[in-house]
């Protein structure tokens, strides 16, 4: 990490750590006043996060889309951006951060222990398609994470329908519809991610599809969300079932992005020097 | 029996079940090492280490899982189900798009999710308000029907059709797939002499192309990390500059830069200095490995030094206090040596009939005496490129399928169908509305619409 990047990223990690703790505190002790102000703290931490990314860009000359660390920094940034946009449009949804902010914290933590060194971008990653592929990957990932956050809020509200703390949250049908919207947005952007990845793979490896573990797992995640959409549209799975699917399906996406490194020894997606 | 199977295959539950099975099966392919991904050497090592397990997995076709008969059968069932579900739904979707039902009474309208009774509002006002918002309005007496995005359900068919296109593109790709490697040095003309052919097309002959490699220009960061690689070609279509991620396409045939290495020019001279033999030898040396070549009946084992001066300085520094006899000359290049060629040298071990004759480190233009009065001179060097050559005829179909899929998804979920019905009865206008998706959002839209109608604004 460059010096300024280091400062901003560690402030960000501490900030997300504190806000995650405050989210849990406000839910556990039903502190509505704390919860309603938390997104303002998240905005401040998000600015530090953005400054960290800018510092990285100035140091290495490319946006953070190569390697585990950069992927984690960008991924967490998109997740928080989506959370803030959601809260900005629906103030009653300020509690969604309970699911998404700790998630961003874990992501950032994972990135920092992986590979924060300043290295020039590998030759294989210098492609116009990489930018598009990664951008849509993060859009998909972030909307799936927000759907997961909404799923948690839905289940909590459903379990405590009469408690005053939860009455401030949107009605269950509204939460359900929002969750579905984010799943659909994720599904579409995920499809674009897979398609652009295929085009890039053709130029880089000569095959548009190689059944590589990362490719396969991305397809598996996409199909999982496809099942979720089918179940809702054709069999009427909504509400609690949809919430559980939104929570459970995220594990597949998480493995596709980060878990493959742990399970598989060879993948075309381990980018070397050339 | 056949009818029952047919009926079951049309079921959406079967589709969901099949997708779940595909997901579970894909997990097997991730869990078990796959031959194609491991690489030949690693696979053979694994087989040697665990012969029983690998033989068993091979017998069950689990090391080529994605092309195994089991997986193929599953895909076949999946696509059969897709076709049957689509065929089953086409008439219904077409009818839904074509016909617009007018309400027979206000009871019909009240069955809609959102309803409102409007007093002193005419059907004309409703029609105008709807038309201004993109609804197509049909009227008959006291009944009115407005539909927005009427043909959106067709996108469902397009989405599923894209899977069939993907299948078509995939099959076409498999049957026309050609995979090869070609090693071409700078100045050399490639005219179809592939070094290795990995996959031959099942239909059609081996594709060919012709070009000359004009130049290879690698750029390194810190002399070690490659940050750019440009290869200039002279092709039938004129000069082309290619690089990693930017292959050369000749029709459907693509040439990707897979690797580059060094190709020294060795000249065999007689005692009078006349050239007897010469060759640009494509060696795999730049990563620090040993390679060999045959010339004039000798075997030459080579190691390449990208910067012999730096190496010698390093050795001198580390062995400064050693006695002269223990001071070594570099004869084995390190895998960690810089990639950039600055002060090149080659350590050559000369062998004949398996017997080692001598080892020397040559710099450019230096020579090695052979035992028959001839000399091997290292005259020059250049780069050679290892190209990965591929051809897939179905690629455009696959891309078209992706495109169609995305368009269909966007249409389906952004421009979903909205229906408004109105019926005038006893001086009151009953208005009802519903949408295919997102009822809460549509509820807000409907309230705004009702407000507009109530206020008489259009």
Task: Please give the oligomerization state of what you see.
Answer: heterodimer
Principal-axes shape call of chain B: elongated
Strand content of chain B: 25-35%
What share of the residues of chain A does DSSP label as strand, in percent? under 5%
Gap from first CA to last CA of chain A: 22 Å
Number of beta-strand segments of chain A: 0
SS field, number of helical segments of chain A:
9
Q: SSE order of chain A, as H and E?
A: HHHHHHHHH
Question: What does this molecule look like?
Answer:
The complex is a heterodimer of chains A (274) and B (458). Chain A is mostly helical. Chain A has 2 domains: 1-120; 122-274, no CATH class. Chain A has 9 helices and no strands. Chain A has helices at residues 3-28, 32-60, 67-89, 97-114, 128-159, 164-167, 172-205, 213-235, 240-263. Chain A starts with a helix and ends in an 11-residue tail after the last helix. Chain B has helices at 2-9, 12-31, 35-38, 40-49, 51-59, 69-98, 106-110, 123-132, 154-176, 308-318, 395-414, 439-454; strands at residues 114-119, 136-140, 143-148, 178-185, 189-190, 196-199, 211-221, 225-235, 238-243, 248-250, 253-269, 275-280, 291-295, 298-305, 345-352, 355-363, 367-369, 375-391, 418-425, 428-435. Chain B has 4 domains: 2-94; 100-150 and 415-454, TATA-Binding Protein (2-Layer Sandwich), CATH 3.30.310; 163-261 and 388-402, no CATH class; 267-377, no CATH class. Chain B contains 12 helices and 20 strands. In chain B, strand 7 and strand 8 (225-235) form a beta hairpin. Chain B is elongated. The model of chain B has no long low-confidence stretch (mean pLDDT 86). Classes of the chains: A mainly alpha (274), B alpha+beta (458). The interface between A and B is large, with 55 and 55 residues.
């Amino acid at each position: 990490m460059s010096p300024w990047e280091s400062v901003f990223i560690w402030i960000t990690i501490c900030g997300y750590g504190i806000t995650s703790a405050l989210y849990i505190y406000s839910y556990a002790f039903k502190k509505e006043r704390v919860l309603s102000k938390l997104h303002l703290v998240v905005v401040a931490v998000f600015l530090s996060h953005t400054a960290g990314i800018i510092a990285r860009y100035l140091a290495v000359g490319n946006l953070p889309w190569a390697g585990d660390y950069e992927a984690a920094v960008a991924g967490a940034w998109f997740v928080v951006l989506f959370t803030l946009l959601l809260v900005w449009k629906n103030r009653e949804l300020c509690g969604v951060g309970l699911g998404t902010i700790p998630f961003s914290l874990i992501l950032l933590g994972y990135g920092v222990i992986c590979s924060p060194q300043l290295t020039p971008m590998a030759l294989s990653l210098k492609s116009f398609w990489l930018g598009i592929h990664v951008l849509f990957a993060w859009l998909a990932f972030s909307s799936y994470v927000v759907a997961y956050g909404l799923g948690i809020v839905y289940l909590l509200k459903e379990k405590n329908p009469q408690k005053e703390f939860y009455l401030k949250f949107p009605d269950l049908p509204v939460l359900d519809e929002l969750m579905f919207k984010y799943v659909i947005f994720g599904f579409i952007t995920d499809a674009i991610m897979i398609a652009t990845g295929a085009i890039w793979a053709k130029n880089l490896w000569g095959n548009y599809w190689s059944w590589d573990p990362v490719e396969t797992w991305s397809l598996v995640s996409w199909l999982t969300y496809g099942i979720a959409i089918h179940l809702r549209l054709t069999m009427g799975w909504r509400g609690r079932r949809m919430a559980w699917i939104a929570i459970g399906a995220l594990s597949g996406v998480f493995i596709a992005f980060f878990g493959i490194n742990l399970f598989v020894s060879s993948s075309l997606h381990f980018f070397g020097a050339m | 029996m056949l009818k029952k199977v047919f009926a079951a295959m049309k079921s959406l539950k079967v589709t969901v079940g099949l997708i779940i099975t595909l997901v579970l099966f894909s997990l097997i392919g991730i869990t078990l090492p796959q031959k194609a991904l491991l690489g030949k050497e690693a696979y053979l090592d694994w087989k040697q280490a665990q012969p029983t397990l690998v033989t068993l997995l091979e017998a069950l076709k689990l090391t080529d899982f994605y092309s195994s008969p089991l997986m193929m059968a599953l895909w076949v069932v999946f696509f059969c189900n897709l076709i049957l579900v689509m065929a089953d739904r086409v008439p219904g979707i077409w009818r839904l798009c074509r016909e617009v039902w007018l309400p027979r009474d206000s009871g019909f309208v009240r069955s809609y999710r959102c309803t409102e009774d409007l007093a002193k509002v005419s059907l004309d006002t409703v029609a105008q308000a709807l038309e201004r918002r993109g609804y197509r309005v049909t009227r008959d007496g006291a009944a009115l029907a407005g539909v927005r995005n009427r043909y959106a359900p067709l996108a469902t068919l397009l989405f599923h059709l894209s899977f069939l296109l993907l299948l078509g593109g995939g099959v076409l790709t498999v049957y026309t797939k050609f995979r090869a490697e070609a090693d071409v040095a700078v100045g050399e003309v490639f005219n179809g002499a592939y070094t290795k052919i990995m996959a031959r097309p099942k239909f059609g002959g081996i594709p060919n192309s012709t070009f000359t490699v004009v130049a290879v220009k690698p750029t390194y960061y810190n002399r070690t990390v490659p940050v750019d690689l440009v290869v200039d070609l002279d092709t039938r279509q004129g000069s082309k500059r290619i690089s990693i991620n930017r292959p050369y396409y000749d029709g459907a045939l693509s040439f990707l830069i897979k690797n580059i290495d060094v190709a020294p020019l060795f000249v065999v001279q007689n005692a009078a200095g006349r050239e007897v033999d010469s060759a640009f030898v494509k060696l795999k040396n730049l990563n620090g490995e040993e390679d060999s070549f045959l010339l004039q009946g000798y075997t030459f084992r080579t190691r390449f030094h990208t910067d012999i001066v730096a190496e010698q300085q390093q050795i001198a520094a580390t062995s400064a206090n050693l006695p002269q006899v223990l001071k070594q000359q570099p004869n084995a290049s390190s895998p960690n040596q810089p990639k950039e060629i600055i002060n090149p040298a080659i350590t050559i071990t000369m062998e004949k009939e398996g017997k080692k004759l001598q080892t020397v480190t040559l710099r450019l233009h230096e020579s090695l005496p052979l035992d028959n009065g001839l000399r091997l001179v290292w005259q020059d060097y250049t780069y050679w490129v290892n190209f990965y050559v591929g051809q897939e005829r179905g690629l455009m179909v696959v891309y078209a399928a992706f495109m169609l899929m995305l368009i269909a998804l966007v249409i389906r979920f952004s421009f979903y169908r909205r229906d408004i019905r109105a019926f005038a009865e006893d001086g009151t206008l009953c208005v009802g509305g519903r949408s295919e998706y997102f009822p809460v959002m549509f509820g807000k839209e409907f309230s705004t619409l009702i407000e507009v109608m109530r206020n008489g604004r259009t």
